[in-house]
Design the sequence.
């Protein structure tokens, strides 16, 4: 069953410090590394209690292991039904009792069970300025469209693909040279903005809590 928000207005109080984060990854994990580095400072207010993945042998899992963070892997192909994969991912993630779940380059659509269990507390980062260019090829699609600026979006996850309420966005200029390498250099520039944006957004939600009002994500405790 698909997830649908249970209320137009949801409040999430700031958890006890440090907030517990579970990070889900599928690849190189440079966004994960930025979070690991940020969590080393007690003032950041969060700690990564586990890193989950949908595949083995990725640098993201190595980064977690090197930092002494527990890891787990659930591969879709190991389950007869997608709903069973969803149940396994939900169960293992829930066992770490996260306050927030961060999908940082996690290349699978989360299931309805996962969405319901962590409603309003799943943060994703996407390498384009949503609502433009959602999906797995945000950088390539923006380049192909001929945009002059693109960027990255940190947002709450809902049951659509990259459609949830926006928390923060960063802008990156596209140059003529970007069309020559298919977007690799552009993606690297986006990721350098994205890491800072993600670290700032996650830290803010961890320290202050948050409120979801329809499409807006607001601090629960207003800035003084
Ligand atoms: C990021 O650009 C993320 O937005 C996209 O994949 C990239 C992951 O990079 N979905 P990394 O694994 O964090 O280095």
Sequence:
């Amino acid at each position: 069953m698909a997830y649908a928000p249970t209320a137009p207005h949801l409040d999430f109080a700031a958890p006890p410090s440090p907030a517990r984060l579970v990070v889900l990854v599928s690849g190189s994990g440079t966004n994960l590394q930025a979070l690991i580095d940020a969590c080393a400072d007690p003032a950041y207010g969060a700690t990564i209690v586990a890193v989950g993945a949908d595949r083995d042998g990725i640098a993201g899992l190595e980064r977690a292991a090197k930092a002494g963070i527990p890891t787990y892997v659930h591969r879709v192909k190991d389950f007869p039904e997608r709903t069973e994969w969803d149940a396994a991912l939900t169960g293992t993630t829930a066992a770490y009792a996260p306050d927030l779940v961060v999908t940082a380059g996690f290349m699978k659509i989360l299931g309805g069970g996962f969405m319901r269990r962590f409603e309003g507390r799943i943060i994703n980062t996407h390498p384009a300025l949503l609502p433009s260019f959602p999906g797995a090829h945000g950088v390539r699609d923006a380049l192909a469209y001929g945009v002059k600026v693109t960027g990255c979006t940190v947002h709450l996850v809902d049951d659509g693909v990259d459609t949830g309420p926006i928390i923060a966005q960063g802008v990156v200029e596209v140059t003529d040279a970007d069309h020559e390498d298919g977007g690799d250099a552009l993606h690297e520039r986006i990721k350098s903005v994205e890491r800072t944006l993600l670290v700032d957004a996650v830290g803010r939600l961890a320290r202050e809590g948050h409120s979801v009002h329809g499409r807006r994500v607001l601090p629960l405790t207003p800035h003084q």
Notes: Strands lie at 9-12, 19-25, 46-53, 71-73, 100-103, 122-126, 149-156, 166-173, 210-213, 216-219. The CA atoms of residues 90 and 114 lie 5 Å apart. DSSP finds six helices and ten strands in the chain.
